[in-house]
TrEMBL record:
It comes from the Bacteria. The chain crosses the membrane at residues 12-36, 56-74. This is DUF4235 domain-containing protein. It comes from Streptosporangium pseudovulgare. Keywords: Membrane, Transmembrane, Transmembrane helix.
């Protein structure tokens, strides 16, 4: 039996960072920015938080992608021969691509808001009447996109669980038998 602990850990930890960070940002960071008393500082507070998170998020995404490639290489035989594994792998690939695209879109929208400087707003993703129109448009799009990322990465977590369930029964049997014989 071959173990893939390093690439599996990279895959799972990277995906956890991507999912958890995006969900916390949407709920916590963007939500908390609306509690800042000065309306002109609300976007700055959200932007500073996202700027600090971006390198960590990029590292998590890179870990996830490297782990995904490693797992695909390690399980290419299962993908080719075990019913259902190829379909699940294709589904994960499509969702990964969509999550990457939406994450990139989110970063571009965030950069547009950040470049505007301190503008009045209800929160980092909610404009007010005094918000400049171009910033308000970016905020409105970002307000939707912020929820798409955890939805897509959450879908990846579900497909990852399915991959775990698709492990070959023969591998489980061999592991149980070895444990019984060892004692």
């Amino acid at each position: 039996m071959q173990r893939n602990t390093v690439v599996r850990s990279m895959h799972d930890l990277g995906l956890a960072m991507w999912f958890g960070g995006s969900l916390m940002g949407a709920v916590g960071l963007n939500g908390a920015s609306g509690a800042v008393s000065d309306r002109r500082e609300r976007t700055r507070v959200a932007n500073v938080g996202w700027s600090k998170w971006t390198p960590v998020n990029a590292a998590g995404i890179a870990m996830y992608l490297a782990g995904s490639i490693g797992l695909l290489a390690a399980n290419k035989g299962r993908v080719a021969t075990q019913k259902g594994v190829a379909g699940n792998t294709i589904g994960k690939t499509v969702l990964s691509g969509a999550a990457l695209a939406v994450t990139g879109c989110s970063r571009m929208l965030g950069a547009k808001i950040e470049q505007a400087g301190d503008v009045p707003a209800e929160s980092g993703v909610e404009p007010c009447a005094e918000t400049p129109p171009d910033v308000a448009g970016a905020q409105k799009r970002l307000r939707v996109v912020q929820w798409v990322i955890p939805a897509l990465t959450g879908g990846l977590l579900v497909l990852n669980a399915l991959h775990g369930e698709q492990q070959r029964p023969g591998q489980v049997f061999q592991g149980v038998l070895r444990r019984l014989l060892a004692g």
